[in-house]
Amino acid sequence: GECFNNEPVFRHLSSADAPFVIDVPESTPAGGRVAESGYLEAVDADEAHSVIHELTEADPPDHPFNVAKCGGDIRLNRGAALDHHADPDSDAPEHYDLTIHADDENLGEDTLVLRLRVTDVDEPPEVLPPAAPPTAREDAAPGTLVHRVEARDDGVNARFAFAFEGASDFG
Fold first, then answer.
1. Which sign does the torsion angle of CA 67, 73, 74, 77 carry?
2. Average of pLDDT values for 100-126?
3. How many Cβ atoms sit within 10 Å of the Cβ of residue 140?
4. pTM score of the predicted model
């Protein structure tokens, strides 16, 4: 009989799609997957061969990702965080280009180029703590400024609306 060796192939993607783009929300938790399990896996039709996945190239080289040797899952490193900046002067990369190599250890291999694009997630603004506890004089005239609330938001064209909750009217 003839002996055939099938090369591993990335099941859902092909090198013709290179670079294949996956949007990764900036809110992806440390240790979290960047795509559903098995989506980036290379498989080999030869049942006796398992496929080893390896990250062989990355731009920028100090990327925060790791690739599981078995299964090809790409995860955000523990302790890492992504940040999407609308500011063009930011140092945070807008995307990461990764090259994944799949090898069946029987002379069969495939390579996939991915672009992981960091996407913005609308996050609530951060209310900054006051420098000192707010106080108001009992005899303050109506309309007197008694406290200034400050907040910050990294979003583009962020606007704030403040409302009093649980306020009392002692009048």
1. negative
2. 87
3. 11
4. 0.70
User: What is the rounded CA–CA span in Å between residue 81 and residue 74?
Assistant: 14
CB-CB neighbours of 51 under 10 Å: 24
Q: What share of the chain is helix, strand, coil (3-state, %, to 5)?
A: 0, 30, 70
Q: What is the mean pLDDT of residues 159-163?
A: 75
Point out which residues pair with 116 in neighbouring strands. Answer: 22, 96
* Interval 128-132 mean pLDDT: 84
Task: Respond yes or no on whether the N-terminal peptide bond of residue 64 is cis (omega within 30° of 0).
Answer: no
Residues 80, 84, 85: CA angle, nearest 5 degrees: 130
For the cut 50, the answer to whether the pLDDT of residue 137 exceeds it is: yes
Report the candidate in 59, 49, 162, 24 with the shortest Cα–Cα distance to residue 109. 49
Give yes or no for residue 170 having a pLDDT over 60.
Answer: no
Amino acid at 157: N
Does the bond joining 133 to the residue before it have cis omega, within 30 degrees of 0?
A: no
